[in-house]
Design a protein that fits this description.
mainly alpha, two-stranded antiparallel ribbon, two-stranded antiparallel sheet, 50% helix
Length: 218
Amino acid sequence: MSPLPTAPLIDVPFEFRHCCWFCHEPSNLYFSYIKEASTPHPSLSVPACQECLLLAKANPLTSIWDCRVVVKDALLKKYQKHLAIGQNWTQEEIESAEFDDNCKIFGGFKKSAWFMYQVAKKRINAQAWPLQIDGLKLDDSGHYQLEFEFDGVSYSSLYRAIEHYSKSMALDKQFLTRIVEQVGRERFSYGIRLARIHIASNEKVKQAIIEELKQESL
C-alpha cells in the first residue's frame, strides 16, 4: 500500500490519474512539499513515481516549481545516453542495422534502443499540469519567476546558481541548498556568506545552523 500524502493533495485531472506530476510515468506514491517561511505557496502533495520522489526529496529548494526544475535536470543528466539515440539514429536505421541478434550487446541495442529513447524523451518533455487544491488555483511557473539573477548574472534557475557558486567557491552544495531553502532566494547572498563561513565545519555544526535558521523563520 502506498503511503498517504502528509499535505493536501493537488487536484489531478482525469487523464493524468495515476501519473507522476514530474514526468507522467505511472505512479502510486506522493511527494509532500511542506511549506517553509520563504515558500510562495501552501504545503501540498503531488503524485510522484519512485525515481522522481527520491529526487524531489533531496532537492525541495524554495518552491515546488524550483524543485521540479531540479528533478527534470537530474532526469536529463541520467538519461542523456538514451536521448542521444534519437540524435544519432532514426528508428528505421536501427531496425535495418546489420547487428547480430545473438550478440547480447548489439542485439539488445537493436531490440530496445528506440523504445528507451521514446520513454526518456516522453519523461523529459512531460509538462506538469497546473496546480490547484479543491478547485482553488495556485500561482504557477508562468507567474513565478524560475529564472534567477544574482550579482549581475542571470541563471536559468535558482538551482543553477547554487551549482555555479558551489563549484566556483568550493562550497558544500547540499549545505548551501539547505540554507537557501530556509532563507529564500531573496537572501541568496547571505546564504553564500554563511556557507563560506562554515566551509570547514562538520556535519553536526551545519545541522545546528540549519536548525537555527528554522527557528528564526518561525
